[in-house]
Specification:
heterodimer, A: mainly beta, Alpha-Beta Plaits, SH3 type barrels, 2 domains, 5-stranded antiparallel beta sheet, 4-stranded antiparallel beta sheet, 2 helices, 39% strand, elongated, B: alpha/beta, Rossmann fold, 5-stranded parallel beta sheet, 4-stranded parallel beta sheet, 35% helix, globular
C-alpha cells in the first residue's frame, strides 16, 4: 500500500473487510463496538495503530476476516466515527467501498442527557435522536427537543 | 391522519398563518353558531401540573363550541399515583374522548403521548420545553396589536432558561422574516444556546443585556416572564434572582407609545399593578385571545370547518 511516497507494511488480505481512514486513537473504540456485537466475538481481527496517512496525517486501520458487516454494526460505527471507509476485499482487491456518514436518525442507541426527559423515566420507551449538524456532530432528542454534541451522549450499548 | 399540536418546531410558517386566520374567523363568528360545531365531541384534560388559564380556557373553548369536557388536574387523582406508566395512562384515556390536552412536568411527554394515542394530542406544556397553544395565542395577540408579525423588535425578560413559553415563542418567531430579539435575564437564567439555532441565520438577530431599562426604550414589545420557583433544583439560587426584574408605571414614562407589555401569566412581582391601568398593558387582552385561539386549535385538530 502506497501513501505519500511511503511504503506501508500492512499485509494485504485475500478476502474480508478493511475499515480504513480511522482517525488515530479511534481504532480501539471501533474495535470495542465490533466486539460488542455477539456475531463478531469469534471473528479474526487485526488492529493497526498510527499508520501514516496523507489524508489524516495518522490513522488507525482494522481488518476483519468476515464476509460483510451487518447494517446494525455499520450504523453503530457511523455514530461513533463518521468518515471512516469500509472496504470489501475480494482476491486481494477492493471490491466495494463505502464512506460512512453520520446517521440521520439514531434509535435506541443513545441515552438522553436531560435528566428530566421522559425517556429517562418511562419504562420500555426507545430513545430517538435526529442529526442536526453533521459537521458539528450535534443531535436533537425528538422527545425533549434538546440538542447535544455526540460526545455528550452516553451509548445505551457499547 | 390525525393532527397533533406538540411543538412549534413541527409547524411550518403556513401552518401558523392558518391557525391565525382561523382564530380571526372564530372571533367573528356569532356565539350561537359556534355552539353547534363540536356537539357530541369530548375533550380530555390531563393536567399533571397546576394551571389556571390553560386548563380553564381549553375547557371553556370546548364548552363554547358545544362539546363536553372530562379529565383531572392532579396526578394524585389518577392511577399514576399507583405506579401506572404514562403510556398506559394514554392508552386508557384515548378510549374516553375525541381529543386530549396534556400538561406534564417532564419534557417530551407531549411527543410520547402523540406517538401513543389514536386521538389528537395538544401539548399544554411539557416541562421547560414547549407550550405551543400559548405561542399561537401570543402570535395572535401580537398580530392584532401590530397588524403583522414580521420586522418586530421583541424583548424577552426574566427566566429565559426554564420558560417554555419563551422557548416556544422564540422558535415560532424565528420562522418569520426580519426578527430582532433582546434577551434580558440574570446570568444564570440565560436562553440556552441550542434554541438560537436558525435555518436562515440572516433573518434573526439576538442581542443581550441585563438592563430592563434598556428594553423599555428598545423595541415594540416586552414579553415578561415569571421567575419560576418550581423549576429551580436549588432554592438558594432562586432566592438570588427571584426579584431581578420588575416593571412599573414610572419605568414606562418615557416608553414609545406603541410599546406593549405581554406576559403568559401568572405574574408574581415582575409587573406592578400600576401598569394595568396604562395603554402598555397587553396581558389581559392576551388572556382573552387565549380562549379564541384554543377554539381554533380544537376545530383545526378535529378537522371541523367553519
Amino acid at each position: 500500500m502506497k501513501t505519500g511516497g511511503h511504503i506501508l507494511h500492512i499485509p494485504k488480505i485475500e478476502k474480508g473487510i478493511v475499515i480504513d481512514h480511522i482517525p488515530t486513537g479511534h481504532g480501539i473504540h471501533i474495535l470495542e463496538i465490533i466486539r460488542s456485537h455477539p456475531e463478531m466475538k469469534e471473528v479474526v481481527v487485526t488492529l493497526g495503530l498510527n499508520y501514516r496517512s496523507t489524508k489524516l496525517g495518522k490513522k488507525d486501520l482494522i481488518k476483519l476476516e468476515v464476509q460483510e458487516l451487518t447494517p446494525r454494526i455499520v450504523q453503530h460505527i457511523s455514530l461513533i466515527c463518521p468518515g471512516v471507509t469500509i472496504k470489501k476485499i475480494t482476491d486481494y482487491e477492493v471490491d466495494e467501498r463505502l464512506t460512512v456518514r453520520s446517521p440521520q436518525v439514531v434509535k435506541n442507541r443513545l441515552q438522553c442527557r436531560n435528566p428530566n426527559c421522559i425517556t429517562n423515566h418511562e419504562r420500555h420507551i426507545e430513545t430517538c435522536f435526529r442529526l442536526v449538524d453533521e459537521q458539528k456532530q450535534t443531535f436533537k432528542c425528538i422527545y425533549c427537543e434538546r440538542v447535544f454534541h455526540l460526545g455528550e451522549l452516553r451509548p445505551l450499548i457499547s | 391522519m390525525k393532527r397533533d399540536l406538540i411543538s412549534m418546531d413541527d409547524l411550518t410558517l403556513e401552518d401558523i398563518k392558518e391557525f391565525l386566520q382561523l382564530a380571526a374567523t372564530v372571533e367573528e363568528l356569532p356565539a350561537g353558531e359556534k355552539m353547534t360545531k363540536l356537539v357530541g365531541k369530548i375533550l380530555m384534560v390531563m393536567f399533571f401540573e397546576p394551571s389556571t388559564r390553560t386548563r380553564l380556557s381549553f375547557e371553556s373553548a370546548m364548552c363554547r363550541l358545544g362539546g363536553s369536557v372530562i379529565g383531572f388536574n392532579h396526578q394524585m387523582a389518577t392511577s399514576v399515583a399507583k405506579g401506572e406508566s404514562f403510556i398506559d395512562t394514554i392508552h386508557t384515556v384515548e378510549n374516553y374522548a375525541d381529543i386530549m390536552v396534556i400538561r406534564h412536568p417532564r419534557e417530551g411527554t407531549g411527543r410520547l403521548a402523540s406517538e401513543t394515542s389514536r386521538i389528537p394530542v395538544i401539548n399544554a406544556g411539557d416541562g421547560t420545553n414547549q407550550h405551543p397553544s400559548q405561542t399561537l395565542l401570543d402570535l395572535y395577540t401580537i398580530q392584532k396589536f401590530f397588524g403583522g408579525i414580521e420586522g418586530l423588535k421583541i424583548a424577552f425578560v426574566g427566566d429565559l432558561k426554564y420558560s417554555r413559553t419563551v422557548h416556544s415563542l422564540i422558535r415560532a418567531l424565528m420562522k418569520f422574516k426580519d426578527q430582532d430579539f433582546l434577551l434580558v435575564s440574570p446570568d444564570t437564567l440565560r436562553l440556552p444556546e441550542y434554541l438560537k439555532r436558525a435555518e436562515k441565520q440572516d433573518t434573526v438577530r439576538f442581542h443581550e443585556t441585563a438592563s430592563l431599562k434598556e428594553a423599555v426604550s428598545w423595541g415594540d414589545l416586552i414579553y415578561m416572564t415569571r421567575i419560576q420557583k418550581e423549576r429551580f433544583p436549588d432554592l438558594v439560587e432562586y432566592e438570588k434572582v427571584k426579584d431581578s426584574y420588575c416593571i412599573d408605571e414610572k419605568m414606562l414614562e418615557h416608553a414609545p407609545e406603541c410599546l406593549r407589555v405581554l406576559h403568559p401569566l401568572p405574574r408574581v412581582n415582575e409587573i406592578s399593578y400600576s401598569v394595568d391601568r396604562t395603554t402598555y398593558a397587553g396581558y389581559f387582552e392576551q388572556v382573552g385571545n387565549g380562549l379564541i385561539m384554543r377554539q381554533a386549535i380544537l376545530l383545526q385538530l378535529l378537522g371541523v370547518a367553519i
